Predict the 3D structure of the following.
Amino acid sequence: MLTVANIALLVVVGCYLAATVVYFIEFFRGPFSKLPLGLLLTGTGFLADCLFHLTRAGSHTGPQPYTLAYSLSNLGWVVILAFLLAHLKWRIPGLGAFLVPIPLTFLLIALRLSAATNPVVIQSRGAVLTVHIVVLVLGHAAFAFAFVLALLYLVVRWALKTKQQWFMQFTLPSLQTLDQMGLLFLRTGFPLMTLGLLSGSVLLNQLAPETLLPEGSWYSKEVWSLLSWCVYAVLLASRSFFGLTPKRGAYLAIFGFLSILLSLFGTDHLFEQAP
Amino acid sequence: MSVIVAGLNHRTSPVAVRERLYFPPEIVRETLPQLTASGAIQEIELISTCNRTEVHLVASSLPAALSEIEDYFSYHSGLNPNKFRDSLYHFSEAPAVSHLFRLASSLDSMVLGEPHITGQLKDAYRLAREIGTVRSLLDRLVTRALSVAKRVRTETDISKSAVSIPYAAVELARKIFSSFSGLTVGILGTGKMGEDTLRNLHQAGLCKVVAISHLRDRADHFVAEFGGEAAALGEIESVLPRLDILIACTTSLPDHYALTERTVARSLGRRGGRPLFLIDIAVPRNLDPAINDHDQVFLYDIDDLTKVVSSNQDQRSRAAELAEAIVRQETADFMAWYETRSILPVIAALDRRATSIEEEEVGKVLRKFGHLPLTEREEALIRGAVRGALRKLLHSPVARLRDPQTANAEHLAAVLGQLFELGEMPGQDCGED
């Protein structure tokens, strides 16, 4: 059925897809024109995403149905919001080409999941649930940023080390900037994730696990979330106290975010059959 | 009245001629007004750089203006005109406009896209305005040339990347470090290119310099110019942990590196993970290539930097094609204005004549109707009818004059002026509109 929410969602996907293409072309060939086309498309997609969330919230009178798809679309929304804010503050060239595909991927997965997943309605659990969802979404968005900055760091480092001539024409941030900003996002995301995990365990004690998701899924989610937390803890401690090089730190930031993705939706599928 | 460009540059004359024809600003200030006083030249500016000496002028006769310029160059350089006559080039009208636009956009420079020429043209223009040798037409032309240069710089990549070894090194350093403020640069040896690289880095904001040399007194030479401290070559291992950038340009034997991989490896532990950028512009190389294998070390030798420069030059050449298209378009636009500017006073005079006839004829009619007071509407109708008739009569010749396709527009304008007895028209010659 063609509802306002559906149309808004189509606009979001279309805009983010077009923005990704524009950012990639601009990354390799320079800007099309003085008009910030990628930013305009991302901004339009973001507004449509706001409309989608508003219409969706308005259509439910009772408690919100919790689905992984909904969680992913929230995460995508926060990542784009953070991207737009980061653009206003720092204007990091090349970031859009690597960052916008992340919420786009989240949305595409969410679209695919939403048809297949039965929503689990969580009755109001007060502040704990709100804190859990908000801090985890914010923390994951910070890690998504750190992931993209780590990717960019490795690309820039590789180009400088191997003396790639084509690379010289790009106006990418310096290695030091990418490293420092990546660390900033990691240091922001880590306490949020810690708080998210703590509130999650409190929530688990309050709820019967079977009312949320299948038991095996929750078990593997906890394990993977804890693993991700450990990766980030090791990364931050090693960078701060044990002289871990930025290159290795970048690899760990990438691994950490991949483990978050796995804990977010990979476990539902990989470990669905787990006893 | 014609727009003329005349001069010589690095392509047409050797440095022995160019250095004699160099005009410092104080000489230009003193002597250029003499050229306009003679009457052959109405407006003029002179640009003199290490690669060119060129005049941009407005004159009614090309041969007379060129003769004046030759005499001027000869008198102030002390050279016989035969010594530089063959090196002189000159353009008039559209080719002159195009040349000036290309010059301002750095398309005629020795290093394509170098930014200094625009500033030098701006200085020459400012000086000519101060001494009153630039008026309406040249003013409009040079102002347009400067805005074309701005357009070329913003719409193309012509001046985007470095095309010299020292600038390429600075550009690479910018890709590693977020800011130059607070960084320490070491210079190993006293080579000229190393000094230029250090100077560029210093101008970009580097604040600390450590000069390392076989001889302490030679290192002191750098310290005197850039500040910082001097160190002997034997102290390099103790200095290395403090450095962020090292420029190597000393003499060494092949495979006898001044800085080995082992020395660097030992210092890395004391660097706190900071990146180290090594620029080896010496031949034979000063720095062991194996140093680049270390994680936080980025080593570029002279070949690497030359490749960067060469790649950037290719990029500038590609950008120049787009810049040339902009210059062509801007030249056409300017010439469209330039070719109609001489007929504008005629059109204005025709308009004044039509208005005066209108006033005269309407006045006569109104006087005849003096005993019958007319309403405002009736008076407006009479005025409108007279004005309409006059406009219809003049529409066709004026439209023909304004049409850029019209050949001999100036001649037609002169004929119109005579037929309508328009007399002397102010500004017709000097291009005022």
In short: The first strand of chain B starts at residue 2 and ends at 9.
